[in-house]
C-alpha cells in the first residue's frame, strides 16, 4: 500500500513501523534518509480497506560541535577565527534566573563544587528541609 508522510525533517533517518498483534511494533520498511518534507512510501502487504497502526520512528544525528553550546557544558575551548587567530570560546549559557547557576564563573564556587549537579542537589535538599 502507498502512504504519504508529511512534515518530515530533511536529513533525518526514519523507519516506518507497523503494529502486529502479539509481536508489537515491527519495521515495515528499512530505515532510510529523508530527502524531502513530504515523501510517498510503498509498504508491502497492506490490503485496501483495512485498518493498520503505523508509526514513523525518526532519528536525528547531531554534530558533536553543536553539543558544545548546550547548557550543561561549562568551561572554555580553543577555537580559530575566520582569519586563523586563536580565541577562547566560552561554552554554556548562564542565566541569573536558574538557581543551579549560582556561583558559576566564581573561582571559589568552582573549587568547592564539582559541577552544577551538586549545586542543584544542595538546593533540592534545602527545599526538602524547609517542608
What report would you give on this structure?
- Residues 98-110, 120-131 have a biased composition (Acidic residues).
- Residues 83-131 are annotated as: Disordered.
- It is a single chain.
- With 131 residues, this protein is α+β, with helices and mostly antiparallel strands.
- The chain folds into two domains: 2-59; 65-130, no CATH class.
- Helix content is 19%, strand content 31%.
- It has three helices and eight strands; from the N terminus they run ββββββαββαα.
- The strands form three sheets. Strands 2, 3, 4 and 6 form a four-stranded antiparallel beta sheet that branches. It has a two-stranded antiparallel ribbon with strand order 1-5.
- Strand 7 (75-80) and strand 8 (86-91) form a beta hairpin.
- The longest helix is centred in the C-terminal third of the chain and has 15 residues, at 116-130.
- The model is unreliable at 86-131 (pLDDT under 50).
Q: How would you summarize the topology of this molecule?
A:
Blueprint: E1 2-5, E2 13-20, E3 24-27, E4 32-33, E5 39-42, E6 54-59, H1 64-67, E7 75-80, E8 86-91, H2 107-112, H3 116-130
Antiparallel strand pairs: 1-5, 2-3, 2-4, 2-6, 7-8
Biased composition (Acidic residues): 98-110, 120-131
Region (Disordered): 83-131
First-residue to last-residue Cα separation: 59 Å
Average pLDDT, rounded to a whole number, is 68
Biggest sheet architecture: 4 strands, antiparallel
Shape: elongated
Radius of gyration: 24 Å
Helix content: 10-25%
Number of helices: 3
Task: Give the SSE string.
Answer: EEEEEEHEEHH
* Beta-strand segment tally: 8
Q: Stretches where pLDDT falls below 50 for ≥5 residues?
A: 86-131
> What class would the helix/strand composition place it in?
alpha+beta
Percent of residues in beta strands: 25-35%
